[in-house]
């Protein structure tokens, strides 16, 4: 039993123990396959609580899990027996519209950031599902609709307030602790607990031309061959994400198309809408789309448009890799594997990278996938009451294995629990990995923060 009474007294936030009401809700994360039982959950109210919790954990030898949005598929935000330092009550966002910056607390979700920044017609690159946490996403790099125009989320980070493994509070930026600042932009949660992030913002929307176009699964090879050339010449204002799977029963989808196997190219054009109409026309007119939902849309609505398709508590199993341009061989792999999942909820998504992501020099941040053209994330998905665990885990692995000849590193934020340390190494170049390990040694020599995609200290 951990002696918590004095600890509880020193907190402004809440301490939740296994016998407390709300314990099971507080230990649940987005991926419903994760079922861990921490000894203590500290719902921090602010930086002071984070410092107190880190010191308490160290004094009592408790393993630490850090929770931002709780979305990591590997479930690293929760542990067995140790302490969860939970920032999910720290979701404030302060926007400075004149300076075009936002300061965002470490437990905020993208919906919080988008909501506040869009009030001023501003945004920064965030994830494509708005209930994802800002913290984990930013620290791994951050890919999303705006990245080809405005860079990764991490490229927009101006500074971060950090509580280190020894309970100290420091600010990392280009001017202070610049080594740590470099590491935070791709190296994940290894280096400390970020209590707030400062981001650069850009004029976006409030209306963008956005939405998916669907084609029958049988048209996949033809559409992808067209898309390959279309995407190569696309302006940076256009973000696209391909999706293979069945059509989700969203309100905008006619009932007769629900659950039909199909490929979709989801789009978001952030320049003027009429310009976007021109840019997107060839794509929308290619072949015989089943459904075209591209329309002028509030950026906020587009950011939340996929939220209901990946709810909290369903069971998820992921495999991911970065990919080069879509060769005919690669397209054959998609055609052979993308539609053979048994669960109608399983799908895969391909992000189109490039643009501003590629223009940032390799050594400017620790994110290491800048030269890849695409990233694929294969998602086995089933509800807890459905019996697809075995079949769709197998489907995910087989699809991933078939991509072996085309693989080019991996995005650290898409690694699942069984990917192991070798794939963490694959997320970085050799030089970047060892530089990260040195910075880890300086800021966290005892690997206090190790429940993450771990980079071990060199000693
Ligand atoms: C449905 C879904 C959609 C996604 N879409 C995208 C996308 O479009 N683009 C993209 O780039 N990624 C995307 N991701 C992946 C996402 O970036 C990772 O899952 C990320 O870890 C989520 O961050 P979180 O704060 O919600 O996670 P958590 O599970 O809370 O945290 C993950 C890890 O981050 C670290 N961490 C969390 N908070 C802090 C903090 N305050 N300080 C220091 N370390 C911290 C810890 O090591 C923790 O283990 C998506 C994930 C999901 C589930």
Secondary structure: elements and pairs:
Elements: H1 5-9, E1 14-16, H2 23-27, E2 40-43, H3 47-59, E3 64-67, E4 83-86, E5 93-96, E6 101-105, H4 110-118, E7 122-123, H5 134-140, H6 147-150, E8 157-163, E9 169-173, H7 178-184, E10 193-200, E11 202-203, E12 207-216, H8 220-232, E13 238-246, E14 261-269, H9 273-284, E15 291-292, E16 295-298, H10 299-304, E17 315-323, H11 328-337, E18 347-352, H12 356-359, E19 374-382, H13 389-402, H14 420-426, H15 430-443
Helix pairs in contact: 8-11
Description of the structure:
By secondary structure, the chain is of the alpha+beta class. It is 28% helix and 23% strand. β5 (93-96) and β6 form a beta hairpin. α8 (220-232) packs across α11. The structure holds flavin-adenine dinucleotide.
Can I get a quick summary?
With 459 residues, the chain is an alpha+beta fold. Helices cover 28% and strands 23% of the residues.
- Give the total of beta strands: 19
Bound molecules: flavin-adenine dinucleotide
CATH classification, class level of the largest domain? Alpha Beta
> How far apart, in Å, are the first and last alpha carbons?
31 Å
Note the main sheet.
Answer: 8 strands, antiparallel
Q: Which CATH architecture of the largest domain is right?
A: 3-Layer(aba) Sandwich
Q: Which strand-content bin applies to the residues?
A: 15-25%
- The total count of helices amounts to 15
Average predicted local confidence, pLDDT: 97
Helix fraction by DSSP (H/I, runs of at least 4): 25-40%
Overall shape: globular
How many domains? The number is: 3
For this structure, the CATH topology of the largest domain is Vanillyl-alcohol Oxidase, Chain A, domain 3
Q: Calculate Rg over CA atoms.
A: 21 Å
Which structural class is indicated by helix and strand composition?
alpha+beta
Poorly predicted spans: none
């Amino acid at each position: 039993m951990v002696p918590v009474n004095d600890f509880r007294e020193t907190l402004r936030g809440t301490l939740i123990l296994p016998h407390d009401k709300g314990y099971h809700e507080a230990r649940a994360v987005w991926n419903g396959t994760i079922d861990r039982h921490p000894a203590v959950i500290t719902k921090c109210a602010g930086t002071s609580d984070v410092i107190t919790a880190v010191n308490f954990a160290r004094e009592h030898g408790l393993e630490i899990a850090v929770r931002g949005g709780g979305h990591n598929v590997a479930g690293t935000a929760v542990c067995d027996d140790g302490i969860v330092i939970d920032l999910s009550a720290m979701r404030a966002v302060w926007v400075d519209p004149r300076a075009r910056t936002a300061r965002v607390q470490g437990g905020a979700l993208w919906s919080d950031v988008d909501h506040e920044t869009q009030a001023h017609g501003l945004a920064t690159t965030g994830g494509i599902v708005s209930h994802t946490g800002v913290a984990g996403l930013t620290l791994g790099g951050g890919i999303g609709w705006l990245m080809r125009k405005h860079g990764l989320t991490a490229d927009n980070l101006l500074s971060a307030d950090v509580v280190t493994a020894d309970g100290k509070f420091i600010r990392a930026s280009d001017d202070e602790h610049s080594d740590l600042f470099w590491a935070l932009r791709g190296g994940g949660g290894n280096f400390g607990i970020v209590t707030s992030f400062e981001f650069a913002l850009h004029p976006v929307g409030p209306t963008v031309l956005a939405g998916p176009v669907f084609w029958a699964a049988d048209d996949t090879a033809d559409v992808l061959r067209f898309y390959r050339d279309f995407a190569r010449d696309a302006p940076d204002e256009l973000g696209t994400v391909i999706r293979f799977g069945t059509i989700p029963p969203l309100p905008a989808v006619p009932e007769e198309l629900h659950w039909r196997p199909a490929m979709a190219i989801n789009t978001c054009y952030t320049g003027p809408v009429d310009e976007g109409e021109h840019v997107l026309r060839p794509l929308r007119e290619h072949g015989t789309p089943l459904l075209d939902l591209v329309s002028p849309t509030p950026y906020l609505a587009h950011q939340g448009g996929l939220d209901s398709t990946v709810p909290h508590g369903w069971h998820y199993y992921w495999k991911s890799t970065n990919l080069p341009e879509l060769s005919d061989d690669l397209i054959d792999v998609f055609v052979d594997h993308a539609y053979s999942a048994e669960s109608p909820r399983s799908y895969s998504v391909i992000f189109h990278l490039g643009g501003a992501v590629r223009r940032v020099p390799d050594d400017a941040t620790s994110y290491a996938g800048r030269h890849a053209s695409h990233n694929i994330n294969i998602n086995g998905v089933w509800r807890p009451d459905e019996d697809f665990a075995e079949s769709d885990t197998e489907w995910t692995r087989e699809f991933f294995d078939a991509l072996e000849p085309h693989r080019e590193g991996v995005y650290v934020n898409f690694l699942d629990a069984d990917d192991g340390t070798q794939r963490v190494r694959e997320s970085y170049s050799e030089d970047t990995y060892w530089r990260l390990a040195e910075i880890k040694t300086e800021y966290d020599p005892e690997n206090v923060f190790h429940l993450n995609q771990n980079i071990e200290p060199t000693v």
